[in-house]
Every structure is written in structure tokens, then in C-alpha cells.
Amino acid sequence: MIAIYPGSFDPITLGHLDLIQRGSRLFKRVIVAVLRNPNKMPLFSVDQRLDQIRHSTQHLPNVEVDSFDGLTVNYAQMRQAQVLLRGLRAVSDFEVELQMAHTNKTLSTQIETVFLATSNEYSFLSSSVVKEIARFGGSIDHLVPPHIALDIYQCYNHNSPMLNPISTEAIPPLKSISVEREA
Predict the structure, then answer these.
(1) How confident is the model over 52-64, as pLDDT tens digits?
(2) Taking the CB of the first residue and of the last residue of the chain, which one, N or C, has fewer CB atoms within 10 A?
(3) What is d(CA 94, CA 62) in angstroms, rounded to the nearest whole number?
(4) In the β-sheet with 63-68, what is the strand arrangement from edge to edge?
(5) 148-180 pLDDT per residue, tens
(6) Alpha carbons 105 and 48: distance in angstroms, whole number
(7) Catalytic residue numbers?
(8) Which of 56, 45, 52, 46 is nearest to 21 (CA)?
(9) pTM greater than 0.85
(10) pLDDT at residue 13 is higher than 80
(11) How far apart are CA 31 and CA 48, in angstroms?
(12) DSSP per position, 124-171
């Protein structure tokens, strides 16, 4: 059975990779499909994202990386996939994903949506969170693979905070101020 894992993956995170790895154990083939979304201003080009994902998944022989535009269902039909793989982090994800799954079902009754709950350690993680932290100089080394962290730091003209930790000045304690009371 072929599964499509669609998304923008800008950038791909350890949470995405966890789902890809788990999906690769469940399905004969997983196609990570990068959506060319004209409504988003991505940090990385589609070609850069494809390269990043290929490098991150090269140890998984049944994972393929591709890109598409248009409807996910049409792409899945073209690739002869039977499943759309989606991750759920929170109840709010479920509401949006369920609506999308129902909509996709109206477009093709041959394609099922399979939800995988995100592993606990990644339940807060999104590409937006990674970009927000990096934009303000925070460390993202624990959120994305090392090669992607370097790409992101370069985009924001930052060095890895792990390589150049931020130092803070110690604030001297306040001196006691004696206050005379008037009697």
C-alpha cells in the first residue's frame, strides 16, 4: 500500500521525520510530497526542501520525496496511492484534519486518510515554531536535523547558538537602602 505524506515542510522537523519513519513501517511505500502552496511565503524553495528531506530520509529505503501542486487527492490518484498520512499534535489539529479528510473523501472515495498521533516529545513542534525561534537567535538544534539547522541559521544570518552560546551579564545584587522613619 502506498501512502502520501503531504505538507509544506518548510522546514521539515524532527516531528515530521518521526511520522515518516513510523509510516515507513506501516506502508509499503511512503511518498513525502512537498506542496507548492502559492499562498505561503516559504523560507526555502521547493528544490531546497526536497533536498533537505531526501538527505533526512536517505536511511529509509521505502521513502520517496516528490513535489506537487493542486489538490492532494489528484496527486495521490496520479501516484496510485491509497492513503493520505497525517499527523495530529492536539485536538485543534484533529478538527482541521478531520474536515480536510471529509472533504478529500468527497473528491475520491478510493483514498483513505490515516492519522498518526505525534510522539509526545514533538507534540508542540511545528515548522512555524522552528522559524520563530531561529528568527530571534534561539537554538533549534534539538528541533530539526543538524544540516537543516545550519540552513536555517544561514537564512537568518545567525550562527548556531550551541556553537556561540549567548552570554548574559550578572546583575549585581541591590544594596540595602536604609530608610529612616519619621516618628
Answers:
(1) 999 999 999 999 9
(2) C
(3) 27
(4) 63-68, 29-35, 2-7, 83-88, 112-117
(5) 999 999 988 855 555 444 443 444 454 544 445
(6) 31
(7) 16, 40, 89, 127
(8) 56
(9) no
(10) yes
(11) 17
(12) T--HHHHHHHHHTT---TTTS-HHHHHHHHHHTT---TTTSPPP-PPP
